[in-house]
Amino acid sequence: MAAVTELQKTFYHVDENGYYGKFGGAYIPEMLYPNVEELKENYLKIMYSPDFQQEFHKLLKDYVGRPTPLYLASRLSEKFGASIYLKREDLCHTGAHKVNNTIGQVLLARRLNKKRIIAETGAGQHGVATATICALMGMPCKVFMGAVDMQRQKPNVERMRILGAEVIPANSGSKTLKDATNEALRHWINNPVDSHYVIGSVVGPHPYPDMVARFQAVVSAEIRQQLKEETGTEKPDYVVACVGGGSNAAGAYYHFLEDTEVKLIAVEAAGMGVHSGKSAATTALGKIGIIHSSKTLLMQTDDGQITEPHSISAGLDYPGIGPLHAHLYDTGRGTFYSITDDEAMEAGILLSRMEGIIPAIESAHAIAVLHQMELKSDDVVVVSLSGRGDKDLETYIRWGKY
Amino acid sequence: MSVVNTYNRIDQVFEEKEESILSVYYTAGFPALNDTVRIAEYLEKAGADFIEIGMPFSDPLADGPTIQDSSTQALHNGMSLKLLFEQLRDVRQSVSLPMILMGYMNPVMQFGVENFCQHCQQVGVDALILPDLPMQEYLNEYKELFESYGLYNIFLITPQTSEARIRLIDEHSHGFIYMVSSASITGAKSNITEEQLAYFDRIRAMKLKNPTLIGFGISNYETFSHACSYANGAIIGSAFIKVLQESNDLEKSITQFITSVKGADHR
Q: Exposure winner among A69, A263, A330, B267, fewest CB in 10 A?
């Protein structure tokens, strides 16, 4: 992978002010300015230094188990009449792509002489990934989690505790992911000097969306190389990924952003239906505004109050999307679909039965969209299988239709 | 630097009085939906100097639990920006103190920034505090607009703000600078630490062109008078919200609280 030490001056990458087109920026209170500025000044320098790259890639290889396979799902391919490859992020240590970013950020935090790590989590996957790396690095870790989510995701709460992290309930607002993010940001405001806040997705103030995308970019770097070995060409016709905040999608798209012949398919959670009032389909329902210090598309009332989304998959249950994705939507570079709870669950069962892979319900949304795409027999499709379904067993059981 | 050509009540107060300015924050539509204007009237009668009205937001990043809870309650009561401007339509008939609106960018963006500024001017708002509007964004996008409606944008500084940045903020400020007393979100704390005093001293020694008001953690006579010995005055928010929350008689509670903070009952 070519080391990119400067901001690429391209249409789909962040500009020097932290914007993707009209989205992004850093709408932070002055209390956060020094922290965010420190990060902005240093993240590229640190992450592309040789010793960082060496340590990062060694951990990705030996600890996470990268490269993850690019697997030609032959029965699925037959069913959909195209070559369907699955990028197996579900085989990463801790069960999802999230760990690529947490390793990167914790290594970065150490080089900024930060002593403590804070993180937010919705379903608990990013929290578990952060707690894991903090255990590995011997750093104290506080994870903020909505009180409602703590009830819904007890096994992950205990996983984090086993790993030595302190899980702090967010009792404000709706007591879910957006409130956990607020609480984590507030904790950072109160502890500005020695703490680093590990944001789990391509959201938040600049430079987070760009930094997280770069840590996740290893996914598309591997896809290019593996696809070339498999098919002789680096570029598929489609890259498909689910989008909550959008970190696995950002990673899967990253090295294809400028290759406009590669179509980027983003799959949002329609919940019980886009217009049911119980949905998380941000591009369908959202308007431009500011959430978690980033100007992007978000679900809100006419009066500008941020609304509570719904998806059966906790990882897609976020009322905004990262500014990169808002830009891809706005420019038409990305094609956005939405998949209902039921469609996702059915796709999860389909993948289980046809390929012996129980996907995370987030990733099942990306499988479900294959039904809606008009595929040709010579199309090469890469689907980001971002996580495994172990964490969702309860949800599969409750859904019950298998 | 462009000159603001509109009369601003904040400047007038500072012309008459340079010290012990008391600015009081409360959330619009709290405790009850239609309390917004009468609280302003009681504050003026009780002897506050500035009135800061919070525009409630679902996700107030810089606020502690007391103010967030009051915002949640206000939204639950049915508060909105549109309604706030309706409530404030005739406020200038009964309230003459400087009036500052404080809140977050997203509701303002949805209202339309220019539309918002127009409404502010119509009802007699003097200044805005928008904690998540960064200085550079303000200068690039909104400065001319705010100034054309006679609105001062109040900037925050914190113990972590560099000297160079404080100078820059001072250069672009009108009215006053909001000195956040510690690295923190809003909410009453018990006392003022040595570290904070060193920070207050450092800022005082910079001899800024704008007056400074200290906010965050000011809750009573002791903290208020202490802060006033280092700055032109101080801002009370969370402690006042608690008073409103527990009050059975708003006028009486507000008068008692303001009297006690100003130390009139200590003399």
A: B267
The two tokens of residue B151 are 């609105």
Residuewise pLDDT in 10s, chain A (402 residues): 444 445 555 789 999 999 999 999 999 999 999 999 999 999 999 999 999 999 999 999 999 999 999 999 999 999 999 999 999 999 999 999 999 999 999 999 999 999 999 999 988 999 999 999 999 999 999 999 999 889 888 889 999 999 999 999 999 888 888 889 999 999 999 898 899 999 999 999 999 999 999 999 999 999 999 999 999 999 999 999 999 999 999 999 999 999 999 999 999 999 999 999 999 999 999 999 999 999 999 999 999 999 999 999 988 989 999 999 999 999 999 999 999 999 999 999 999 999 999 999 999 999 999 999 999 999 999 999 999 999 999 999 999 999
Q: Is A187 on the interface with B (CB under 8 A)?
A: no
| Known catalytic membership, residue B52 | yes
Distance from CA of A37 to the nearest CA of B (A): 11
Chain A residues lying within 8 Å of B85, measured CB to CB: none
Architecture of domain B21-153+219-260: Alpha-Beta Barrel (3.20)
- The helix/strand/coil state of A398 is helix
Neighbouring-strand partners of residue A85: A72, A382
User: At residue A320, what are phi and psi to the nearest 5 degrees?
Assistant: -125, 180
* Domains of chain A by start residue, with CATH: 29-61+98-212 (3.40.50.1100), 65-95+217-399 (3.40.50.1100)
**B107–chain A nearest CA distance, Å:** 4
Give the integer Cα–Cα distance in Å for A56 and A64: 10
Residue of A nearest to B180 (CA): A31
Do the chains contact at B110 and A304, CB–CB below 8 Å?
yes
Question: How far apart, in whole angstroms, are the C-alpha atoms of residue A149 and residue A66?
Answer: 30
Residue type, B84: L
Query: Which pTM does this prediction carry?
Result: 0.95
